[in-house]
Amino acid sequence: MRRHINISGIDKIVLLRALWKKQNSALFYAVMEKEPPVFDSEHSKVVLQSGEGYVDYVCGRRIKTYIGGDEVDPTSYDDHSHTGPGSFEKIVAELRNDELRNNEIVRKHD
After folding, report:
1. What is the C-alpha end-to-end distance of the chain, expressed in Å?
2. By CB neighbour count within 10 A (0-12 exposed, 13-18 middle, 19+ buried), where does 68 fall?
3. How many CA atoms lie within 13 A of 67 on its CB side?
4. How many C-beta atoms surround the C-beta of residue 87 within 10 A?
5. Chain centre to alpha carbon of residue 20
6. Domain count, the chain
7. What is the pLDDT along the chain (110 residues), one digit of tens a residue?
8. 84 and 69 Cβ atoms separated by less than 8 Å
9. 73 burial class (0-12, 13-18, 19+ CB within 10 angstroms)?
10. Calpha distance 71→32 (Å, rounded)
11. Alpha-carbon gap, residue 35 to 52, rounded angstroms
């Protein structure tokens, strides 16, 4: 049975950057002795829009996941992640924890 991860409320570009950071660059760059690209938010927006939420590769790293909705099947991302099963869910949890910490800091200063 496939498990889905709820990503509602998480900015898609923030999520995409976090997913990107946890993936290795495509092997092509090492083989061709080329510098892999850095993350580019504007390019990532185009990738998200052109794939209608499905992201194959972005800025030289494999994502292979549909993030267009509020629920994500993380199987493909996890299968292609060097950190293994549960990678997608851990990233979402980290983003949610960061958001909670940021909200607490804002409340303390209000």
Report:
1. 45
2. middle
3. 31
4. 19
5. 5
6. 1
7. 568 999 999 999 999 999 999 999 999 999 999 999 999 999 999 999 998 999 999 999 999 999 999 999 999 999 988 888 899 999 999 999 987 766 665 556 55
8. no
9. middle
10. 37
11. 28
The neighbour count for residue 70, using CB atoms within 10 Å, is: 12
The domain in which residue 42 lies consists of: 5-108
* Residues 46, 33: Cα–Cα separation, whole Å: 27
Say if residues 61 and 72 touch (Cβ distance below 8 Å): no
Separation CA 110–CA 25 (nearest Å): 42
Structure tokens at 94: 């980290």
pTM of the model: 0.86
Amino acid (one-letter) located at 20:
W
Q: What gap in Å lies between CA 107 and CA 41, rounded to an integer? A: 28
User: Are residues 5 and 72 in contact, defined by beta-carbon separation less than 8 angstroms?
Assistant: yes
**How far apart, in whole angstroms, are the C-alpha atoms of residue 22 and residue 74?**
14
